[in-house]
Amino acid sequence: MGLVVQKYGGSSVADAASIKRVAQRIVETKKAGNQVVVVVSAMGDTTDELIDLANQVSPLPAPRELDMLLTAGERISMALVAMAVGQLGFEARSFTGSQAGVITDSVHGKARIIDVTPGRIKSAIDEGAIAIVAGFQGVSQNSKDITTLGRGGSDTTAVALAAALEADVCEIYTDVDGVFSADPRIVPSARKLAAISYEEMLEMAASGAKVLHLRCVEYARRFDLPIHVRSSFSNNQGTWVIKERPVGDDMEQAIIAGVAHDRSEAKITVVGVPDRPGVAAAIFQTIADAQINIDMIVQNVSAAATGLTDISFTLPKAEGKDATNALQRVQKEIGFQSLLFDDTIGKVSLVGAGMRSHPGVSATFFAALAEANVNIEMITTSEIRLSVVVREKDLDNAVRSIHTAFGLDDSNNEAVVYGGTGR
């Protein structure tokens, strides 16, 4: 008997018919002789609708109360899925994140998991029941308040629970058949990967691929937990996220795992920065104090006549206002001239473990962008990733051009997107 943790996203439990289909899949897994724990997201667009409702009531809802409101979405899903499983003749017990033992820090809206103590979940599955857990939520270790985990929270809940329960596998069900070499909404000829390493998946997720969230993959790598990404709308074999791609995998000979893109970033340019030691540190300490993560950084060469330079960096669009406000408060102290904010950019990234040992990757990458007449604004690299910032209007064209240039197109099959969100 194996222990399987399954996670179903919002598109998989969007309505009553979808919930019944999910319940059938859960029961089939149980009938196969497995112990089953299920993590569910809120139905469809419920979370967005609750956020809109909160904003109608209050332009600045208290973070504690907003978390209390948003966790209702997953509680609705968990209860309905448990009812549907019960209708099929199997016992199911639903649990909130706090009941499941998901313990977090006290940061509302983007809490991080500190520990998982799944005593009630273990008792339920030992007694033969199927445990249905609300994703995206936990309870603060210090304040005992309900918290939410932020973007990708249900994925992270599932992997954290699977690690704590020492599960054999964590199955992440979404609205595509697995991890593809590019977003199939942009590249219909994208190739489904049979397997991808944690390292490559981390880079893909960090670069904007939405099929798995970065925090979820980090957790899986830490505990060496296999993730199987597959669709709840089909029975097709999905993509295994594991320590290393097996020799002989259909993508093993290719140096590239895939092309990822991100529309969620903006660019801030700090204009006229005094070019002296400590100034860059002051700028980025200000951003860090505002609890804002940054991605790419570029500093221009100082102008000899003025001794001034420009520093540009990218960050989430949603945090652009907070970042500019924080920098404006220290403008006189740092001595820069002005700030420019640009939210019409996009990032495209090439990811592949084979890039370490294959020359010519950069040349092919930039030639593909030139062929597509796409201008590059910023460049950054890691050992297995090459990323550039381009105009948002050029992003789709850039993705398709790079994907084709590296021979990633699958001429035999067209990728199917069953839902609409990719999560």
* CATH superfamily heading of the largest domain: Acetylglutamate kinase-like
CATH top level of the largest domain is Alpha Beta
Give the CA-CA distance, first to last residue. Answer: 29 Å
Question: Strand tally, please?
Answer: 20
* Low-confidence parts: 249-253
Briefly note the structural class of the backbone.
alpha/beta
User: How much helix, percentage-wise, in residues?
Assistant: 25-40%
Overall tally of domains:
2
Number of helices: 12
- Gross morphology: globular
Radius of gyration: 23 Å
CATH topology of the largest domain: the name is: Carbamate kinase
CATH architecture name of the largest domain: 3-Layer(aba) Sandwich
Largest sheet: 8 strands, mixed
Quick recap of the structure?
Helices cover 33% and strands 25% of the residues. By secondary structure, the protein is of the alpha/beta class. The chain is globular, with a radius of gyration of 23 Å.
